[in-house]
Specification:
alpha/beta, Arc Repressor Mutant, subunit A, D-Maltodextrin-Binding Protein, domain 2, five-stranded mixed β-sheet, two-stranded antiparallel sheet, 10 helices, 19% strand, disordered N terminus
Length: 311
């Protein structure tokens, strides 16, 4: 094939890649298979490349394929162009990932399963589709994870200590989690007074006092202090076996009925308990960081769709 003149169209990166494959295989059939193409399609790409460059790259005979002098001379340049294109794509990907960023979101226990939090996470993904999101499960010491910077923001159960900002998301009733063998199981609904003799499974000292007092209802409405079991736990999963063994009770969200069904543990309605509140929490210094701000805006969008991103 004789090619003359100069095309005004530049070759594509794909065409150069196919030319490099052919330069290594020196066989159209093998080169086409390596490129996962039908041989006629592969040949058309090489012909188009020659037309665009205005030079024969391959000497074709019935018995063999060999690079022409021009083809030999251009292999190195073609490889440089392909390598440069690969480098460009890698650099663009690196910068895209850097721009996308990463956020670590704490989730108190199974909080991310409670409405409207799944919708908030979906809205965050819609706003920041390339943002790398790590969800870190945290226990009753959620405030510690926020204050230490272990997480950028967290879905928590209130209350939290001073120094943490929050956006309430939902609230609901609480119940009593107790051993299924407890005589009170069949007496519900109960009152705090009914639970006066029941030891309460307490928490590690790592858990803020404001949190411990609220969730134990300490003191009780009649002013009496709570009786605690000798156990101290850091998360609800650790409390469940103790509850099943009759070592004490806890007063979790009523949602624990379906989040944490366990053999030997019964959930009993209790009236007169202050409702619990789920919230998004963050440090004031992180409030306006781009990804924390995006999470806050996503939450507000779900809570008040008509307000959009207004705060």
């Amino acid at each position: 094939m004789a090619v003359s003149g100069r095309s005004t169209r530049y070759p594509s990166i794909q065409q150069l890649q196919l030319f490099l494959i052919l330069s290594e295989e020196l066989h159209f059939g093998r080169a086409a298979r390596r490129a996962y193409m039908a041989q006629p399609t592969f040949s058309r790409h090489i012909t188009t490349l020659e037309e665009r460059l205005g030079v024969d790259l391959v000497d074709r005979t019935t018995r063999r394929v060999a690079l022409s002098a021009a083809g030999e001379a251009l292999v190195g340049r073609a490889r440089s162009v392909v390598d440069a294109a690969d480098g460009l794509c890698r650099e663009a990907g690196t910068r895209a990932n850097a721009a996308a960023g990463r956020i670590v979101i704490g989730s108190f226990e199974a909080m991310t399963s409670i409405d409207p939090i799944p919708a908030v996470m979906d809205e965050l993904r819609r706003r920041r589709p390339r943002l790398e999101v790590e969800v870190l499960r945290i226990g009753f010491d959620a405030a510690t994870a926020i204050l230490s910077g272990e997480v950028d923001a967290a879905f928590v159960a209130l209350p939290v200590p001073d120094g943490i900002q929050t956006l309430p998301l939902t609230d609901g009733p609480r119940c009593a989690a107790m051993s299924s063998d407890n005589a009170l199981v069949d007496r519900g609904p109960l009152t705090p007074a009914d639970l006066a003799r029941e030891p309460h499974i307490g928490w590690s000292e790592r858990v803020p006092k404001v949190y411990r007092d609220f969730w134990a209802v300490d003191p009780r409405p009649d002013g009496e202090p709570v009786r605690y079991s000798p156990h101290a736990v850091i998360d609800y999963e650790s409390a469940l076996p103790l509850i099943a063994m009759g070592e004490g009770i806890q007063l979790p969200p009523d949602a624990a009925r379906w989040l944490y069904p366990r053999p030997g543990v019964s959930y009993v309605e209790v009236t007169g308990l202050q409702p619990w509140t789920a919230a998004l929490a963050w440090l004031p210094g992180k409030r306006d960081e781009p990804f924390v701000a995006a999470l806050r805006q996503a939450a507000r969008k779900i809570l008040r769709p008509a307000d959009g991103d207004r705060e």
